[in-house]
Amino acid sequence: MSKARIVVVEDEPAIRRGVCDALRMTGYEVVEATDGAIGLQEAQCGGIDLVLLDLMLPKMNGFQVLAELRRTCPTRPVIILTAKTSEDDRVRGLKMGADDYIGKPFSARELLARVEAVLRRTYKPADEVNLVHLGRARIDLQRREVHWSDHERGDLSETEAAVLKYLVSNRERAVSREELLGRVWGIGTAGLETRAVDMHIARLRAKLKDPNGTELPECIVTVRSHGYMAGPGFSFPKKALV
Amino acid sequence: MSKARIVVVEDEPAIRRGVCDALRMTGYEVVEATDGAIGLQEAQCGGIDLVLLDLMLPKMNGFQVLAELRRTCPTRPVIILTAKTSEDDRVRGLKMGADDYIGKPFSARELLARVEAVLRRTYKPADEVNLVHLGRARIDLQRREVHWSDHERGDLSETEAAVLKYLVSNRERAVSREELLGRVWGIGTAGLETRAVDMHIARLRAKLKDPNGTELPECIVTVRSHGYMAGPGFSFPKKALV
DNA sequence: CGGCGATGTGACAGAATTGTGACAAACCCC
DNA sequence: GGGGTTTGTCACAATTCTGTCACATCGCCG
C-alpha cells in the first residue's frame, strides 16, 4: 500500500510503453492514458501521487490539461515530459504549476531520478498498520481477524480488510470514495457511480459492532459528500519493528 | 514569513552576480557564498528556504556540500546549477537529494521558474489554511470539524466549511457576496438575488458560538452593503513538524 | 451441478443539507 | 424620527447524499 501511484499521459505508444515499464519495474503503480481528455480524468482521480504529462496530445493539449488540473487539484504534482524543449515552453509549463520539465529525448535513469525527486517532496506514504485496537476489539489486518475475547472472534473479507487498513493507515484524515476506489480496488474512477464503497463500509461497521452490545467509540465516521474517516476510536499497539 | 531566503553558492563572480541580481529583483532575500565550505555553513543556517549550488567549487565540491547538508538538514531544498551536464552527474545529484538540476548555460527566466516551482512545494505551502483557532475552538477545515474540548465538538457542512475557508484565507479583507458566490459556489452572478450567502453565514455564526456561552472574539464581521469579513479573532496554529 | 461466501447493483426510505420567500430588525442618511 | 436599504432569521420545500435491503453474479470447492 505504500507504492506511489503515477498517471502517464502520452499518446505515442512506444514512449508510453517505455516510461510505464520503467516506472513499474521501479515499483510504482502506473495508470496509462492515451489522450489529454482521458489523462485529465485519470489525473483528477483520488489517490494519484504524480502525473507525467506529454504536451502534444490528441483531444486536449498538455497545457490545457495542466490548467484544468490546477483548477481542480491545485497541488497535484506534475512533471511535463515532452519534445517541446524551447525555453518558452519550459518556463510556461513551470509557471503553470508543473514541478519539473523533462525534454525528450530523455533517459530512463534521469526520468526515474526526477520522479523520485518530486515524490520525495510530495509523497508521504501512510505508515502501514497491521494491528489495531478498537475498544476491547483486537483487529489483525494481516490475518483479517477481529478478536473480542478468547471465545468471540470474527473474520473480515479481503476487501473489507483492505478498506479498513487504508482508512486506519490514513487515520484522522477524511478519505474520499474515489481515493478508496483507486487505492483499494486499483481503478481510476472518473465519475464512476457505485455504492460498492458504502456497502463495504456498512459491512465493516456491522462486523465492528461489539457482540455483547456495548457501545463502541465512534469508529468509521461519515464525512458527508466526501467519504469516510477512521475515527479516534482506533488505537495502535506498540509498533513492532519489521 | 514573507520573502523566501535563498543561498547562492557559486565561485564564478559574473555568474553569481547575475543569479543573485535576478533573484533579488524578483523579491527574494539572497545570501552569497563563494566557496563550498562557506556555502555549506550558510546553507545550514536556520531560516534558509532554498540553496542554489554550483558543483565545481573551491574548498569543497558541490557533491560534498550536498552530502553534508543532507546529513544535517535532510529536507532543505537544493537546486544544482552547473556546467557539468553529463547525465551521470544529473542523476547523481538528484539521487543525492537535490530537487532540481539546471545545466549552464541557463537563462534567468528558466532559473526563476524552477526556483519558483521548488519553493511552491517547500515554502509555506499556500493551501495550509486547514487549521484555524478561534478562541478556544479548534477548527479543522479539511475534516470540517469544530472542537471545543475533548467532549464537545460540532460538524460543518461542505458549503459552510468552504465559505469559512475562503473568508479565513482572505482574513482582514472584506469579501463581497458576489465574490463568495463566484469562488465557493462557482457561479457568475450578474445581479442575481439570493439570500444563500447570508443564510450560510448565519449558520456558521451559530456553529461557531461557544457552547458554554462565553463570548467569542468577533469572528465573522458584516460589512454593510458589501459582504463579510473574517475578523482578527481567527489565528493560525504553528504548523506541526512533519 | 449445487452450495457457499464474497461482492457489486439498483432501489428506496430516511437524513442532512441547502436555497427561497417572507418578514422583522438593524442601519444609514437626511 | 422617517423612509429607503440592507441584514438576520424562520419555516419550509427541494435537492442531494447515505444506509441498507434484496438480489444477481462470480469464483471456488467438493
Strand order of the largest sheet of chain A: 2-1-3-4-5
Oligomerization? homodimer
Rounded to an integer, what's the Rg of chain A over CA atoms? 21 Å
Name the poorly predicted regions of chain A: none
* Helix and strand element order of chain A: EHEHEHEHEHEEEEHEHHEEE
Shape of chain A: elongated
Helix content of chain A: 25-40%
Tell me the number of helical segments of chain A per DSSP (H or I, 4 or more residues long): 8
Summarize model confidence as the mean pLDDT of chain A.
89
Look at the helices and sheets of chain A and give the structural class.
alpha/beta
> Which pair of protein chains has the largest interface, and what are the residue counts?
A-B, 32 and 28 residues
Proportion of beta-strand residues of chain A: 15-25%
Distance between the termini of chain A: 16 Å
